[in-house]
From TrEMBL:
The chain crosses the membrane at residues 6-22, 67-88, 94-110. Keywords: Membrane, Transmembrane, Transmembrane helix. The keyword Membrane applies. It comes from the Bacteria. This is DUF5673 domain-containing protein. The keyword Membrane applies.
């Protein structure tokens, strides 16, 4: 039973790594055609959750792309080495939790810093392309007191959370934070022009 479970986890992990790299490559090839962001100010006004880094241009020469590109090969080598150890020993019977933990550490180590681009025919959000026809709605929220993001980074405070709902997708993509209202208005105007509807959510107060 543990062998079947680990086999399923292993195949799923390999699929995830390969697909993630292919999605990022497609994003890097498409990003130069983006209509937004274009200027340095527009890039710096987009914050990526987690480390709250400013967004950077994406292409095949960018540092973050090369880290994921070559890191994927390293991760695959480590995963197959781990599989070899599991097959050659009784680790799976005695150390299943530890093996699974190592497996997920390797997977989570290969992550792009994130991105958001509006293209002529869709958007790129965190290395994944979504055509406008697949976007059900976009949602915006002002990051003020009582908002879940308020206080995590001073640059995000009083900014705007921008998220998307994708049709027929259980796990929704992550969000970005737009620092300034002028930028948010430009983004939403571009989306509305492409037929994407939006919802402005109110922040619940305690």
């Amino acid at each position: 039973m543990l062998n079947l479970l680990f086999g399923f986890i292993f195949i799923s992990g390999i699929y995830y790594l390969v697909r993630y790299r292919l999605n990022l490559r497609k994003a890097a090839e498409s990003a130069p055609a983006a209509v937004y962001p274009q200027s340095k100010e527009e890039f710096s006004g987009i914050l990526l959750p987690g480390e709250w880094l400013e967004m950077e241009p994406l292409n095949k020469e960018s540092k973050s792309y090369r880290v994921v590109n070559w890191g994927t090969y390293a991760a695959l080598a480590l995963l197959f080495s781990l599989l070899g150890v599991v097959l050659a020993t009784d680790w799976l019977d005695t150390q299943f939790i530890m093996v699974s933990y190592l497996f997920f550490i390797i997977l989570s180590a290969i992550r792009h810093r994130g991105n958001f681009f509006i293209l002529p025919n869709g958007v790129i959000l965190n290395a994944r392309y979504y055509p406008f026809s697949d976007i059900k709605v976009y949602e915006t929220e002002r990051i003020v007191r009582w908002h879940e993001l308020y206080g995590l980074d001073e640059r995000a405070d009083n900014g705007y959370k921008l998220a998307f709902k994708i049709k027929n997708k259980w796990l929704q993509p992550h969000y970005v934070v737009i620092q300034h209202k002028e930028q948010l208005d430009k983004v939403t105007a571009l989306l509305k022009r492409k037929g994407v509807t939006g919802v402005e959510n109110e922040v619940p107060y305690e």
